[in-house]
Design brief:
By secondary structure, the chain is mostly helical. It has helices at about 20-50, 55, 60-70, 75-85, 90-95, 100-110, 145-155, 165-180, 210-220, and strands at about 125-130, 135-140, 190-195, 200-205.
Length: about 240
């Protein structure tokens, strides 16, 4: 069965006689609202973590509580929202998007460059071009896909032996957990290096008075699942 006209839409979304430019502006406004909402979710998540509300209510931690009661949001997404809310203002979250700002935090860490939290748009990003050579773009002009490619390029191992994907993913978990415990002014960084094919993790700029936060962040992560190499079988005897 085919409809001769569109189904009724939500009141206020479509206005009669809208121009193409008005549609574009309306979409940008809705995108901004979504990003602001994500930023606010991050603030609420941080408040829950900082005040140990979940633990006081008898749950293991905040991710355990939200995992049971808000299944539509993954623990990784909540942590990402929280980290971005801790590092950037709500206005910047709405302007650039929570996902893109999260990628910017990762990029500045792997590239080991400073980040101006109050005005991140001017950060220069090395985006791989069609030929693989870097093209320098301001963060304000980069898409999410370009940011991911830029991070991948910076993570390209210096050794001929690449790092296992599970090692990189594990360090990402460490980074989210650790940086989420500190304020943006601390400049805390968690970086991965390729040392002859072996993953090495660097924790940088941890204030001596706050080392306990690092321990708490690492202790709160689930134990890493590692591949156990099979036992070598003894050679058959003659």
């Amino acid at each position: 069965m085919f409809f001769s006209k569109p189904l009724k839409l939500a009141t206020g979304v479509i206005q009669d006689g809208m121009t193409l430019e008005q549609v574009r502006v309306a979409i940008l406004q809705l995108m901004g609202q979504e990003n602001i909402n994500r930023h606010r979710i991050g603030q609420l998540y941080n408040y829950t973590v900082d005040n140990k509300l979940a633990e006081k209510a008898g749950y293991e931690n905040a991710p355990a509580y939200f995992g049971q009661h808000i299944g539509d949001l993954s623990p990784a997404a909540l942590r990402m929202y929280g980290i971005v809310a801790n590092a950037f203002s709500e206005e910047l979250g709405g302007r650039f998007g929570v996902t893109c700002l999260s990628l910017l935090l990762t990029y500045t860490e792997v590239a080991d460059i400073p980040l101006v939290h109050e005005s991140p748009g001017g950060t220069v990003i090395e985006v791989p071009g069609d030929t693989g050579a870097p093209e320098f773009k301001l963060f304000s002009a980069c898409t999410v896909d370009e940011m991911r490619k830029a991070i991948q390029r910076k993570r390209k191992p210096t050794s001929s032996k690449p790092l296992p994907a599970e090692d990189v993913a594990l360090v990402d978990q460490y980074r989210e957990a650790v940086t989420g415990r500190f304020t943006k002014g601390d400049g805390v960084r968690v970086q991965i290096r390729n040392s002859k094919g072996k993953a090495v993790v660097d924790f940088k700029n941890i204030p001596l008075s706050q080392v306990a936060k690092l321990s708490e962040a690492l202790a709160g992560l689930p134990p890493a699942v590692r591949r156990v190499p099979p036992e070598e079988k003894p050679l058959p005897t003659a």
